[in-house]
Design a protein that fits this description.
This protein has one domain. It is built from no helices and 5 strands.
């Protein structure tokens, strides 16, 4: 399980932490969003592409940037 940050729907400069699982590379599936969460750009079950960013304290954060394209059948 990973913590990823999802942008607020009305203020994309603000981020909210949610739980997700890694699917492959930089693609994650959001597993849960708290009931009291603000309106977010993505929700439970969404597959999102995340970008790694290092904050001022040197911690790596995973920022959800966009919906991931459909998985390719192999």
């Amino acid at each position: 399980m990973f913590e990823i940050l999802i942008p607020y729907r009305d203020d994309p400069a603000r981020w909210y932490p949610v739980d997700a699982v890694s699917l492959r590379g930089n693609v994650y599936r959001i597993t849960s969003v708290p009931e009291n969460a603000p309106a977010l750009r993505f929700g439970p079950g969404d597959r999102v592409e995340c970008e790694q960013q290092t904050d001022d304290q040197g911690h790596i954060r995973l920022l959800a940037r966009r919906v991931a394209p459909p998985a390719q059948p192999w």
